[in-house]
Amino acid sequence: MNIRSIGFNSVYDSSYSVRREPENGVYMLILTNSPAQFIIDGISVKTASGTLVLFDDSCVQEYSADGGAFICSWICFDEENDKEFVNSLEIMMNRPIRFSDTEFIGILIRNIASEYYSLNSRRSKMLDTLMRTLLLKVSETGERRDNAQQTVEPHYSALIDLRAKIYRNPQLKWNVDTMAADVNMSRSYFQHIYREVFGVSCIADVISGKIEKAKEILSETSCTVSQVAVMCGYDNEEHFMRQFKKIVGVTPSKYRKKA
Prior knowledge:
Elements: E1 2-12, E2 17-20, E3 26-32, E4 36-40, E5 43-47, E6 51-55, E7 61-65, E8 70-78, H1 83-88, E9 97-98, H2 103-116, H3 123-141, H4 145-168, H5 176-182, H6 187-198, H7 202-220, H8 225-231, H9 237-248, H10 252-258
Antiparallel strand pairs: 1-8, 2-7, 3-6, 3-8, 4-5, 4-7, 6-9
Helix pairs in contact: 2-3, 4-6, 4-7, 5-6, 7-10
């Protein structure tokens, strides 16, 4: 495997955003150390710190900070005749993989970065060995492609449709029971699979949908804050204002002035 570029614990500001077109035979591995937002197949997925994504050469690489500094380690590499090895690992590509303990993977990336910038005479051999070790560790620790697809794929389209409904209709009284019923799942299984697909709880996503709609109305209309609250499904204006400020960082009125 040939490493093209690498970064360890790189820190970017809250406006950081990347969009790269896929390139034949080129992979991008990203391990986040902060909340982030990925857009995969047109779907926005918010992720927590400790999330890894391995992009292959079929997917646009699109990700950004999520409300604060963006911290990540990353490796851009090409397969260099090792495609069979990479495929044999059955790593979930183009999808967030969450780890309870990223310390060992972080150490591997740090060691790869150190070797990459060294003048070691056996640098190429060492890098190849370390990269294979890293990918093996990701395969061992994360979800395997076959298991994850069996769990998610039967429900993927239904969940995408449901999420679209949630964001289109923030005024509705969405709760776990109504959302689970919409996709014909039990309450507990629905909550698990929703987070599995989108990297965020269903209730947190409902709130995000309400706030995104509120921002749109505040920017494009002269509706009062009270009217915006009702249009976004809030019975209590004060609750709306508190939740808006907590998520956006400013009050609805101040947001409108800045928009």
